TrEMBL record:
It comes from Streptomyces racemochromogenes. SMART domains: CHAD (SM00880). Transmembrane segments: none annotated. This is CHAD domain-containing protein. Residues 18-316 form the CHAD domain.
Length: 321
């Protein structure tokens, strides 16, 4: 136990952060359990959706910290927990992602069908896009609602499994006691935590530097999205590392949001392209899906430009107490 006037060690700082995130996880779990009691097994929404969001956020932060600051922890305990938290956050994210993707695509179809700037297919009437958009919307709704239903079932199965209960038990232990390596954790935060956080920043910087320059004219390829998704992941790791040190950098949050928009548009474009490959769909439906795909790819490019614009490091601001 730290003595009065004792400067906090690296273990004190990391331990406080991990305990706070473990507490947030358990709070979200209680909210989920309360919501599940009256939800009747339907899709996540309201308080239950908020609970899932809270569980995902806390799980990601704990897992990321256990990776970035691994040398401070007892690896035999931390490594398995990190793996399980990554599984949990990924599982919980799927249902929300399908619902958000459907909502995004329906809004885009409505906007495009009302836009005078979108031409109708050659040889058709002026209302052809509207008709095709309605059919495309119905097709997307069937496909994505089915995917969401399956994801919801997988979420319920995961949250009721012995695997999840073991994770929850481990996080409950973490809320009161963080298994740290006594030697590594005894160092000064600036000597131990800061260099580790900077390594996460260096990996991020290298990944950003490898991206095509803003405005670069390159042929469209969905495979190129993977590099951007990796930057998004590394930026999240970097943000959580800075957060654990009590530092808030507004430009990182804004850049992260731009990459979230990039991910959403990219996955929406993929969903529209997948729907367009459905056998025996009407030409007007295929045309509307093609217009939708192009619209979402434009959104991808816009998000990339926004990210490049925001990627200008600024002075760090201490986090609010």
């Amino acid at each position: 136990m730290a003595q009065p006037n004792h400067d906090p060690t690296a273990g004190d700082v990391l331990g406080a952060y991990l305990r706070s995130q473990a507490t947030a996880f358990l709070r979200a779990l209680r909210l989920h359990d309360a919501g599940a009691a009256g939800a009747g097994g339907g899709p996540l929404g309201g308080d239950d959706g908020d609970a899932a969001h809270g569980l995902r956020g806390a799980a990601r932060r704990i897992a990321s910290s256990l990776s970035t600051f691994r040398v401070l922890t007892q690896a035999s305990w931390a490594d398995p927990l990190r793996t399980e938290l990554v599984w949990l956050s990924s599982t919980l994210a799927d249902e929300h992602a399908y619902a958000a993707r459907l909502s995004r695509l329906m809004e885009a179809l409505q906007r495009l069908s009302a836009s005078p700037e979108v031409p109708a297919p050659r040889g058709t009437g002026a209302g052809a896009l509207t008709v095709g958009a309605a059919r495309a919307g119905a097709l997307l709704e069937r496909q994505l609602t089915l995917a969401r239903t399956r994801a919801h079932s997988a979420t319920l199965q995961a949250l009721g499994s012995a695997r999840f209960h073991a994770v929850a038990d481990a996080v409950a232990v973490l809320a009161s006691e963080v298994p740290l390596d006594p030697v590594a954790a005894d160092g000064r935060p600036d000597d131990v935590l800061t260099p580790l956080a900077e390594m996460a920043g260096t990996r991020l910087g290298a990944a950003v530097a490898a991206l095509p320059a803003a405005g670069a004219s390159t042929p469209y390829s969905a495979h190129a999205d993977a590099a951007w998704h990796e930057v998004r992941r590394l930026l999240r790791v970097h943000r959580y590392a800075r957060e654990a040190l009590g530092t808030y950098e507004p430009h990182l949050a804004a850049a992260s949001e731009a990459l979230n928009q990039h991910r959403d548009a990219s996955e929406a474009a993929t969903a529209s392209a997948t729907a367009a490959r459905t056998p025996r769909i009407a030409p007007a439906t295929a045309y509307a899906l093609g217009v939708l795909h192009a619209d979402q790819r434009h959104a991808v490019e816009a998000s990339r430009l926004t990210f490049h614009t925001l990627w200008t490091p600024t002075a760090a601001v201490p986090a609010a107490p």
